[in-house]
Amino acid sequence: MCQDDDVIHHNGAGGKFVYGEKFDDGHFILKHTGPFIFSQFFICVAKIEWWGGKHVVFGKVKDGMNIMEAMECFGSSNGKTSKKITIADCGQI
C-alpha cells in the first residue's frame, strides 16, 4: 500500500480536511477488488478484500500505474521506504 504523509505537520499527527475536523465514512459500494484502488488516504497495490466494510473505496488509479509500480519497489514490510518518495507538481492534493 502507498500511504500518504501528513502534509501539514509532516509527522503523521494529522492534517486538514475540506469537511472540517472529522467526517463520517461514506458508502461501501466500491470494493477492494484489485491493485490501484484508492481507499481513504492510501492506495492499495494488491487485492485486499478483507478490508471490505472497514475502509471506504473512493476511486481507482486510471493513468500512471507504472509510477505506482516503480514507487512500490522502494517499499518494505516495515513501512519504511528505501528512498525518499516525493509527489510534486501533481496538481491539487
From TrEMBL:
Ranges of residues in domain PPIase cyclophilin-type: 1-92
Highest taxon, organism lineage: Eukaryota
Record bears the keyword Ligase: no
Enzyme class: isomerase
Keyword annotations of the record: Isomerase, Rotamase
SUPFAM superfamilies from the UniProt entry: Cyclophilin-like
Presence of the UniProt keyword Membrane in the record: no
Similarity comment text for this entry: Belongs to the cyclophilin-type PPIase family.
Entries under PANTHER family matching the protein: PEPTIDYL-PROLYL CIS-TRANS ISOMERASE (PTHR11071), PEPTIDYL-PROLYL CIS-TRANS ISOMERASE A (PTHR11071:SF490)
Name of the protein described by the UniProt record: Peptidyl-prolyl cis-trans isomerase
UniProt organism field: Nyctereutes procyonoides (Raccoon dog)
